[in-house]
Amino acid sequence: MTRGTDARAWVHAAIDALEREAARSADTHLLKIDLPGFPGIDFYFKDEAAHPTGSLKHRLARSLYLYALCNGRLHEGQRVVDASSGSTAIAEAWFARLLGLEFTAVMPACTAPAKIRAVEALGARCDLVDDPASVHDRAREHAARGACHLDQFGLAERATDWRGNNNIAESILGQLAREPHSRPAWIVCGAGTGGTSATIGRYLRYRRLPTRLCIAEPSGSAYARGWRTRDAEARASAPTVIEGIGRPRVEPGFLFEIADAVAEIDDEASIAATGLLEELLGRRYGGSSGTNLVACLQLACDMRERDERGSIVSLLCDRGERYAETLFDPDWLGARDLDPSHWMAALRRCVDTGHWHDA
Fold it and tell me: Whole-structure pTM over 0.85, yes or no?
């Protein structure tokens, strides 16, 4: 028995729709920041919040739908499901609407309320679970009832073409081509699903570049603990309020071997750095962008001590407006005994002096 030509025609039309959307989407800006304490070291931040769905996960969501379509897993009229802490779910809901599909996001109940509202505004459904560690099992339950599980945590590192096709690494290096330090000393990113770090790390090797990859993670994250010992069964030693990274377990897409360094960043430092980014760039970005900035400053301080020149590149992962009721709300921070003010002072001194200052 064979499937009819109508089924293949729908798949072709869906892929056409995704490719047209990609062609309409301009590449995101690579913003340059000059910091007074670091002469000879250039800082660049790729503004992934500029995507139509407001985050780095726009690229991933498109890739996951293409992967599901081309592998014969997604069919016309089929429901779609995935587990997400928010930004991926927003992007997946957006693409589901583009393709005329129903989408369910399995999300931790503690997800920023603005993210939940954004998913629902796109016509999708949120299935909220109290235990963040159970989102995978809940998504699989939906899949057992016939939904196509996009499975960002299991498939992110293979759904994106790491050899090119305008992936994020190729885009960054293309935008740097005419800059003074076109081959960066470091690229810094977090490890939510492991997909972005895998794509960047593989591409750097594929292009035979000397650029090193640093993974910026909340202190005590599973990836940070596992990287030190190459333990794929590592679990986080502490919770984090930085959404999107700091996973409680080592996800299947985490590749230890492609990371040259892992920077563990205190949550209060990450939150303070979101405020510093707002001062430097005039707009707000989320907590993982702050984590990236702190790691960049630490690397730059090490370079300065060794009298090295070069460039450091990182990502602005999502819009800060999504965290107005959490990371940018003093009452929310106070209820969790989080005070980023000491870190803000330390980070400002670092920017001015080029020396690392603990809070």
Answer: yes
